[in-house]
Amino acid sequence: MKKFAIIFLSFFILCCSADNDEPIKQVSVKLNFTHNWGGTALDADDFNKFDFENQESNVLSIERLRYLISRINLIKSNNDTIKFEGYKLVVLDSLGDGLIHELPETISEGTYNLSFTFGFDDNDNISGNYPDLNTANWNVHAEKPGGYHFLQLDGKFKDTTDVQYPYEFHAIKAYDAATDSLKDTSFKLNLGSVSLTNNATIEIKMDLSEWFKNPHAWDLTERSTDLMMNFDAQLDMSDNGKNVFRLGGITQ
Residue 188: pLDDT above 50? Predict the structure, then answer.
């Protein structure tokens, strides 16, 4: 009996060692940015149509949508963080190829929290530093605040007499010319937990209605253009932006 126990124990240890030697699967991850208005899907085919109404009853169209994300992180339960270099300029257009961002390296399968920064923080927001963004005319041309855009959301809205006016909802670093003060209006978002067992595409949903809604109800008849140098408007955009993104489905 004692001999049998020793043989069994040796077999158990051997099996455990074999299991521990199994390689950890490496998986690739893509982010897929989708867009909606209050839950109704939206794409470039919906451009130039007065199909949207914000909380202040402004009827509006969308003609352009571009925004920047950076500092994408996947965070393990023990707070070990995988930091990915680079950034993504998301562009909603008829081609649809500006909506996918593949992370530049594979990772071990497992469960992570997904986070990223909307825009560039002060460490990254350096004028002229990114040739591809310069080519895309994404830089802020004014000497102050300088740096780069975070968001360009453009279109038209109708007043109460049905007259159309343009709006340019552009987010950048906030600058107060009266006090010559600057404020970083980028923000970091933690979208929640993702479980990755195979190569995966993670949906990140932007609800455009939230830009005009929460916590600051936005009346385009009062604030529609010349917002880049409007310090208070930039702060309010940053506040509203924190409610725009949600984690969507995961395809594996």
Answer: yes
Closest alpha carbon to 171 in 157, 180, 184, 181: 184
Tokens of residue 247, six digits? 């984690």
231-240, pLDDT tens digit by residue? 999 999 999 9
β-strand partners of 170: 152
Q: Which residue has the tokens 């279109």?
A: 155
Instruction: Tell me if residue 181 falls in helix, strand or coil.
Output: strand
E strand map for the chain = 26-27, 29-37, 40-42, 52-53, 59-60, 64-75, 81-83, 87-92, 100-102, 107-108, 110-118, 151-158, 164-171, 174-176, 181-183, 187-196, 200-207, 245-251
Q: In whole angstroms, give the CA distance from residue 217 to residue 55.
A: 6
Q: Which of 193, 205, 202, 195 is nearest to 251 (CA)?
A: 202
66-78 pLDDT per residue, tens: 999 999 999 999 9
Strands 29-37 and 200-207: parallel
Cα–Cα distance list, 188 to 33, 132, 164, 225 (Å): 17, 23, 35, 26
> So where are the chain's domains?
27-251
On the 0-12 / 13-18 / 19+ scale of CB atoms within 10 A, 10 is exposed
pTM: 0.89
